[in-house]
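Ligand-bound model needed. dicarbonimidic diamide.
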Amino acid sequence: MARKSMAAEPYELEFDPTTTALLTIDMQRDFVMPGGFGEALGNDVRQLQVTIAPTQRVLEVARKLGMTIIHTREGHRPDLSDCPPTKLVRGKGKTHIGDPGPMGRILVRSEIGHDIVPELYPKPGEVVVDKPGKGAFFATDLELILRDRGIKTLIVCGVTTEVCVSTTVREANDRGYECVVLSDCVGSYFPEFQEAALAMIKAQGGIFGWVSDSKRAMAALSAG
Ligand code: C5J
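Prediction:
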């Protein structure tokens, strides 16, 4: 497949779809729906729901092109043995990881809240990476999967921009991957963090990577 060019900041990103993966980070009910982990931390989860429709559109285009698609989910084993005690108590809220909620036990694998929202649900053959941390490389086989498929570029969507998206992009950048973050496909509970996190990625000539958006990404992917 021919190399493509995506309009982005700080400058155009050249990429080859055959060595590019679409990476959607933690688009789980626990973060975007009421009653989950995000709300337990005191956040207004509706702010993240705007990312679902543009991400769905990019996902459809990536699927049509037969690109590698990887979904991550943040969460823990039912016995919480992979959850650091520090993470468990952080925030001093009334509800903690592992507590029962309207979507099952909060941030626990195999619970309804832990799973990906129906609009973006993985299709057979797509990779799902379960991660106990914020970064998608920590304690996962993501790097192995990317290397085995010869992936060099990551188109990144997901939540939240300043936490799991940023941590993953920074880790990926250090590992030599080129990341482009789609601004309308990533979301934060805090508009000022969204703005700052995106600014940090593309600052200094793209110190961590590129920032584009769903329209520009789809135009690049669909171009002949
Ligand atoms: C958070 C995430 N915000 N997926 N997780 O705790 O960004």
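Residues 63 and 69 are 8 Å apart (CA to CA).
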